[in-house]
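> forwarded from #structure-qc
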């Protein structure tokens, strides 16, 4: 058996920040989950639908692994990423790091993990691995999935080899902190303004505040769009609140990040953004509940109300990001 010593196998709300927390704490860097999420400019929005999808997808964060790259850049972390099409080499990449005493981050498809409660394909899931034996891999996942968990080596191999939307080629990664780590507080403003800029100026109408506005129009048609409304709409609502988002489609995480920042920096623009995201988080939970009720009842009026709430959210988040984009050092 190989087990990396001294790992703090603490699960948090979101998979990528959970894995980052494990890897960074092992390097002596202990930041809150909201701070990891915010410094990685993790907040975003996407409305994703196509003829090949069974139902539209609402995403509230940046694409998988972008948060990790952003955080590594801001804190000048050495990020070693390995990808391969060879399962044998993929295992060697991971086992070599573990044997050397370093926990490893993995991107994989959560559908194949033995312990995973919801058997939905998601190729952008990220976990930390800190040990293995002849049969089992020892991982850290979100607290919702159990925190410190284990899965068979066979299931892990399948999860890592899976292909599809957002999947990577057996991606594994490690982080090494420099001895002179930049002050996280000094990176707060660049992280916030970069996130605001991307949100306010999306390249296509499916992203950012334009994406939320589009979702507000299209959600009204979801009873007709769904194959099985009583299944698809409650599932969409559940993913918004419970799918590793920390609630309110990641808005709770960003609200808490801005709250931490407001304790560190004196900025009226920051306080405005925090106030607006506090309100937005409540409205996202309300929208999810309306979508759930529409699916269970089959009544369009709930979707009409959800559309109105999403329209309000588009304007509210745009105003919040406009304020946040004005923060100066």
């Amino acid at each position: 058996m190989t087990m990396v010593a001294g790992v703090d196998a603490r699960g948090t709300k979101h998979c990528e920040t959970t894995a980052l927390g494990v890897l960074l704490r092992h390097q002596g860097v202990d930041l809150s989950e909201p701070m990891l999420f915010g410094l990685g400019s993790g907040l975003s929005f996407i409305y994703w639908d196509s003829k090949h999808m069974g139902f539209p997808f609402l995403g509230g964060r940046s694409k998988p692994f972008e948060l990790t790259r952003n955080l590594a850049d801001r804190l000048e972390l050495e990020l070693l990423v390995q990808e391969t099409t060879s399962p044998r080499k993929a295992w060697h990449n991971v086992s070599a790091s573990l044997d050397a005493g370093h926990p490893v981050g993995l991107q994989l498809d959560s559908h194949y993990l033995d312990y995973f409660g919801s058997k939905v394909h998601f190729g952008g899931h990220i976990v930390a691995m800190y040990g293995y034996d002849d049969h089992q891999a020892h991982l850290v996942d979100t607290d919702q999935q159990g925190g410190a968990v284990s899965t068979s080596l066979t299931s892990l191999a399948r999860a890592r080899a899976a292909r599809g939307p957002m999947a990577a080629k057996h991606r594994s990664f490690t982080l090494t902190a420099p001895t002179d780590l930049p002050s996280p507080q000094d990176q707060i403003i660049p992280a916030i303004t970069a996130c605001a800029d991307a949100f306010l100026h999306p390249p296509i109408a499916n992203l950012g505040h334009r994406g939320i506005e589009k979702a507000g129009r299209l959600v009204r048609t979801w009873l007709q769009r769904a194959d099985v409304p009583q299944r698809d709409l409650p599932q969409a609502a559940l993913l918004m609140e419970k799918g590793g988002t920390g609630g309110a489609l990641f808005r709770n995480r960003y609200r808490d990040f801005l709250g931490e920042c407001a304790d560190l920096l004196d900025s009226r623009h920051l306080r405005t953004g925090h106030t607006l995201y506090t309100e937005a988080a409540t409205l996202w939970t309300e929208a999810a509940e309306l979508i759930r009720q529409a699916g269970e009842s089959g009544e369009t009026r709930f979707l009409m109300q959800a559309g109105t709430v999403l329209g309000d959210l588009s304007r509210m988040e745009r105003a919040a990001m406009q304020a946040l984009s004005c923060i100066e050092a």
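QC bot note: The chain is about 50% helix and 15% strand. Residues 268-297 form the longest helix (30 residues).
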